Amino acid sequence: MVAAALVVYSLASMVYSSFTTGLTGSFNQVNFLFPFALAWTASATQIYTTLDSAAAGRRAVQLIRCFAVGMMLVAPLLYWTSGLHDEAVLMFFLFGVDTIIFPWLFNAIRETVRKRHRGSLTALAQNYTMRALKIAGFQIVLSVSAAAQGIDGPRTFPRIHATLSFMVTLPFVSVFLIGVFDACAVDAHAATKLRVSALQAAAIASCGALILSGLAGYVLAEQREPSKRASHSVMYVMFLSNYLCAIFVGRLVCVARRTASDAPSAASVQPSGRLDVLDIPGA
């Protein structure tokens, strides 16, 4: 319910901004900082925090699909009414790809985790819930910090936009890590020593690229007046990194789905959920 409310409010606020303050207006910047980033976190991670309920999981997948469809319609409107016609067309294409890829991939990861860790789904769902709360808490801290530096229309938009790019990478990295280490059972310790297959290495490297794109946004967000061009470039690099993750992690999950049904179903199977987007591997 909370995730759905955040999604609806975020989309409605973007529609309102389209006909009032525009993309770079202060109202839209506040929306980007608070409900919008949290909406992505809530909708993406809810697929896994409800791991022990098949019905709730299906609703969570539908929510992320509805959010992506809404963004495919609302984001181009916001850019178009702000005079950014080329970017509006690009947003329509990018979120159209999101609508196709991410609901399928997130659901595939979820179903593979459910097959591989039968018997410990409740404990695993609680672990993912704690992870989601950590991400949301960190996003709130970042939002308050960015707002404390001031929000003043077009002048501060590049900084707020860069902050948003960093915050949105957090839930996506978390989901991709679930796909690599929990759904596909990649050994985290072997990964730190590069003792993995080429496909596993590519999936982990793509996750690293996504993390770096988010950190680039964080670096810009710490500047008083970052370049508008740089903040937009960081966002597009984030989109590209997401798609690289979707390709390699998606392929890895497809391979794992064929073997997950043969994996032990007892609780003795230990999920590697301790590796978190906010943790340091090997620490």
Report Rg: 19 Å
Question: What do the pLDDT scores average to?
Answer: 89
**Overall 3D geometry?**
globular
Helix/strand class: mainly alpha
User: DSSP strand (E) fraction?
Assistant: under 5%
Biggest beta sheet summary: none
Spans of at least 5 consecutive residues whose pLDDT stays below 50 are 265-275
Annotation, overall tally of beta strands: 0
Fraction in helix: over 70%
Element string (H = helix, E = strand): HHHHHHHHH
* Tally of separate helices: 9
List keywords for this structure.
single chain; 283 residues; mainly alpha; 9 helices
Protein architecture, described:
The protein has one domain (2-260). Helix 1 runs antiparallel to helix 2 (26-49). Residues 265-275 have low confidence and may be disordered. 77% of the residues lie in helices and 0% in strands. The chain is globular and about 50 Å long. By secondary structure, the protein is an all-alpha fold. The protein has helices at residues 2-18, 26-49, 54-81, 85-116, 121-148, 157-183, 188-192, 198-221, 228-260.
